[in-house]
Amino acid sequence: MTADWREALVDRVRSLIAQADPEIREEIKWVKPTNPGGVPTFSLDGLICTVETYKDKVKITLAKGASLPDPAGLYNASLDAGTRRAIDIRESDELREEALVELIREAVALNRS
User: Fold this and answer.
1) Whose CA is closest to 89, among 75, 106, 108?
2) Which of 37, 42, 95, 110 is the most exposed place for a label (fewest CB within 10 A)?
3) What is the chain's alpha carbon radius of gyration, rounded to the nearest angstrom?
């Protein structure tokens, strides 16, 4: 990850995930030559989400997103996936912080159910 808008956005997303539930733990997984920084993963009683950077976006993938209500309409990627759902955020997009925090809280509740 380079020091650009994506890095700042990932840092903000990390902060919002911690705000949703301070017990959520971050691990870096899937380190490989093509992705030496690995993928930040966030878990509490099971996987909640991953946060990946791409050239043109940051992708937040909720592991059980298809089972979570999304009244704010955050999901805009992986809409046909059986279990997961994703949110692609591009540089010009607004991060809808309150809605994301609520979605993460719902994911924690689902993991605990």
Assistant:
1) 75
2) 37
3) 13
Question: Any idea where the domains of the chain sit in the sequence?
Answer: 5-112
What pLDDT digit, counting tens, does each position of 61-95 carry?
999 999 999 999 999 999 999 999 999 999 999 99
DSSP state of 83: S
In this structure, what token pair is assigned to residue 74?
Answer: 């955050």
On whether the pTM is more than 0.90, the answer is yes
Tokens describing residue 75: 């999901």
Q: What share of the chain is helix, strand, coil (3-state, %, to 5)?
A: 30, 25, 40
In angstroms, what CA-CA distances link 36 with 2, 5, 29, 85, 93?
12, 19, 10, 25, 27
